[in-house]
Amino acid sequence: MHNVVIIGSGPAGLTAAIYAARTNLSPLVIEGLQAGGQLTTTTDVENYPGFSHAIMGPELMKEMRGQAERFGTTFLQGDVTSVELKKKPFRIVIEGEQPVESKSLIITTGASAQYLGLPNERRLLGHGVSACATCDGYFFRGRELVVVGGGDSAMEESNFLTKFATTVYVVHRRDKLRASKIMQDRAMKNEKITFVWNSSVEDILGGQVVTGVKLKNHVTGKISELPCAGVFVAIGHKPNTDLFKGQIEMDGKGYVLTKNGTATNVPGVFAAGDVQDSKYRQAVTAAGSGCMAAIDAERYLESREG
Ligand code: NAP
Hints:
With 306 residues, the protein is α/β, with parallel strands linked by helices. The protein is built from 7 helices and 19 strands. The protein has helices spanning 11-21, 57-70, 119-123, 133-136, 152-161, 181-189, 283-305, and strands at 2-7, 28-30, 44-45, 55-56, 74-76, 80-84, 90-94, 100-107, 111-113, 129-130, 144-148, 167-171, 193-196, 199-205, 212-217, 223-227, 230-233, 237-239, 269-271. The strands form 5 sheets. Strands 1, 2, 5, 6, 7, 8 and 19 form a 7-stranded mixed sheet that branches. The longest helix is centred in the last third of the chain and has 23 residues, at 283-305. The protein is elongated and about 65 Å long. The model has no long low-confidence stretch (mean pLDDT 95). Bound molecules: NADP nicotinamide-adenine-dinucleotide phosphate. NADP nicotinamide-adenine-dinucleotide phosphate binds next to helix 5.
């Protein structure tokens, strides 16, 4: 029987582990299929405090994992296939492993950026393809960029990217934006933003790094090439919460609802990081909420046992 099990090993999960381990709760982290989370798919991280010369995403996660391990966290590599949260202790079923039981649970399964699903998009991820302008925009000073999408994220990312890029082409599959009026207006007024309507990215071009995109216009059927140094995919995020459906309260988009810090509607179950945050989505905010979840879990256990 564990005191606390943490599902997910991004900045939220590993920070929760560091804090829980340092209060002698001997946490177990179930790392999931993408150990280290979204940061393992990025290159330089320049906005995480404490690294004046930047740090590579995978390196940062390795350091966090080592720090959690040093204080007594144990790790289990595997994919959680189901959880039973309706009775205590909570039961967590992991593919190919014995089920695990725990007095408390911290959910840090994160969110996944939606991608277009093109083979070259995957190959060039971190080499010009990104889903995070805040993380990677800085690398494209003086270059031309493409943003894909027509929602608030695409408008926000495009505006942000004009701080660095000479031109940002917003490629949208329809002739109307989904974004809110205020975000649309801001983007329309920005002279560095050019809209490419009724168009889809059919392929991403480049050997080692992105050099352009191949576009298809849905009205004319015309195929064209647009040179650019980076492609920012902004077609939405999906919280990784399928496991918890029907057991934990979520909003309409599947993000876990938290209150009073990191508490969910199930006593003893806490959530931190992108799985409960569609707004900030930063490594540092995820780490901060992971710390909160560990403190919340510790206080919950103390109140039950005290
Ligand atoms: P979203 O509103 O779902 O918009 C996704 C956009 O991507 C849509 O324009 C959609 O096209 C397009 N898209 C989806 N799949 C595509 C594909 N396979 N190929 C090409 N285009 C595709 O997602 P979001 O922009 O990430 O926003 C998510 C939520 O966060 C929204 O509620 C939004 O208001 C909120 N948000 C708010 C702010 C803010 O207020 N500052 C900033 C960011 C996000 P269609 O339009 O044709 O469906």
